[in-house]
Structures are given as structure tokens and as C-alpha cells.
Amino acid sequence: LAPTDRYSLGRWYEARGEVGAAERAYRAALTERPPAPIRRAVLRHLSFLLKRQDRRAEAVPFWTQLAELGERDEDGERDAVLACIELAKYYEWHAHDIGAAMAWSRRALRVVTGWPPGPHRERVEEELRHRLRRLERKAGERLMVQDL
User: Band of the pLDDT at 148, cuts 50, 70, 90?
Assistant: First the structure.
């Protein structure tokens, strides 16, 4: 099957609740080197399928690929931001790596500041700035505890 067909099959399995079959179809689609828009869609669906199964650590490489691919492709900027935010959440709440969470948040913010002005950009930018302020406070608190 072509990558597009494997992706469509994965979506079909996912809609039916057959997560194992969906995951296999998505992974197979990625091995076929699909075009960028399909690759982004597969990475997005596979990573969130893993997240819903509480397999976030397994989703990390897919979010990383999605962030990198999205940053290189103007049509993929929203995917890049989405992936960066998911990585920031993962590193903050699951890996407990505030530095990595801050780095991914900043990376998302860099992409968002390049978007055309408007309410969507303003909302996402403010959410990211809020996240960064919270992470900076957390980082400061950890430094203070280490100094004791």
C-alpha cells in the first residue's frame, strides 16, 4: 500500500477503536517516506494515539520529528507549535526536566511570533508566555531549594 493509503487505514482503525491496528498502519506509513503533509499527519495522529494510551515517552520522538518537519515547512508551522507544546508538557510533568520544557516552549514561541498578527496568534503567544513564566518560577524555586 502507498503511505497515503496506510495513513487512511490507520485513521479508519483508530475511528473503530482498534488502536493496535491503527498504530501498526501509522508506523508502516512512516517507513514508506510519505510526502511532508502526509508525514506530518501520520506523526500527529500516531503521537496522540500513544499519548491517549499513556505512552508519552514513546510519543516523544514522533513529536520531535513533527516539530522539526513543521518548522521546515511553512504549511506545517501549526504542527510544529503543537508538537513543541506537547514536548514542553512532557518534559515538565513527566520527565521533570524544566530546562527542556523551557527550551521547547521557547521554540514554539519563536514559530508563533512569525505568524501573521491576529487573535489566534495573540492567544497562542500569551499561552506560551504564561507557560514560560510558570516554568521560570519553577526553575527558580528548584535553584533555591538546592541552595539550602
Answer: low
Query: What is residue 116's DSSP assignment?
Result: P
Residue type at 81 in one-letter notation: V
Instruction: Give CA–CA dist 39/4, Å, rounded.
Output: 9
Give the range among 7-21, 33-47, 92-106, 131-145 with minimum mean pLDDT.
131-145
Residue 79 CA to residue 94 CA, distance in Å, equals 21
Dihedral angle at the C-alpha atoms of 78, 83, 84, 85, nearest 10 degrees? 90
Distance CA 145, CA 118 (A): 41
For 35-147, CATH number? 1.25.40
Q: Which residues have C-beta within 8 Å of that of residue 50, sequence separation ≥ 6?
A: 23, 56, 58, 59, 62
Strand locations in 2-114 (E)? none
What's the pLDDT tens digit per position in 25-78?
Answer: 999 999 999 999 999 999 999 999 999 999 999 999 999 999 999 998 889 999
- What's the chain's length in residues? 148
